[in-house]
TrEMBL record:
It holds the Pfam family FMN_red. One of its GO terms (molecular function) is oxidoreductase activity. Gene3D superfamilies: 3.40.50.360. SUPFAM superfamilies: Flavoproteins. This is NAD(P)H-dependent FMN reductase.
Length: 188
């Protein structure tokens, strides 16, 4: 059983990248197998059916292969204007496109996902989680009903980028353990 951990932001100082790193540290403590994916390593054009008709871009093929290899996902999901980021939506769209060897939803179908968010404010980016949950569910993923939303990011992370809010660290640990249990059951 293995998990793919990613941030829906490629901004250098992103709190979501720090949150994804905190998830990876906790997965280490729990002995779970995972890989942290940096979306900056996979530049993609905006999804367009005309581009798709010419064949999937190399980065889309590579991402599709990676998503297909893992049993579940941990997604640190930023909120832009109350919704999912264009970067993350574009990645989810390109990965969902079928290739000659597999079905359209194969990278997501029957897999698990845990959604994480944070923001400088008290809502912690939660409005975007609803949209991402709907997208992943429509693609066949089992999204954990609970998520981890870290409010007041500037105070919740240290200057070194570590999650230091004990309550949020405990929530992250609990939800990652739940994700591990569900993923193991579904992968069996």
């Amino acid at each position: 059983m293995s998990l793919l951990v990613l941030s829906g932001s490629i901004r250098r100082a992103s709190f979501h990248t720090k949150l994804a790193a905190a998830a990876a540290e906790e997965l280490d403590r729990q002995g779970q197998t995972y890989r942290v994916l940096n979306l900056a390593d996979f530049p993609l054009p905006l999804y367009d059916g005309d581009l798709e008709a010419q064949g999937l871009p190399a980065s889309a093929r590579a991402l599709r292969q990676l998503f297909s290899e893992y049993d579940g996902f941990v997604i640190a999901n930023p909120e832009y204007n109350g919704s999912i980021t264009p970067l993350l939506k574009n990645v989810l769209d390109w990965v969902s496109r079928k290739d000659a060897q597999s079905s359209q939803y194969e990278p997501y179908a029957g897999k698990t996902a845990l959604l994480l968010s944070t923001s400088p404010g008290s809502l912690a980016g939660q409005r975007a989680l609803r949209h991402t949950r709907e997208i992943l569910t429509s693609l066949g993923a089992f999204v954990l009903p609970q998520h981890v939303a870290v409010p007041n990011a500037a105070q919740s992370f240290s200057a070194e980028g570590k999650l230091v809010d004990e309550k949020q660290l405990q929530a992250l640990s609990t939800q990652l353990a739940a994700l591990g249990r569900l993923t193991a059951k579904l992968a069996a």
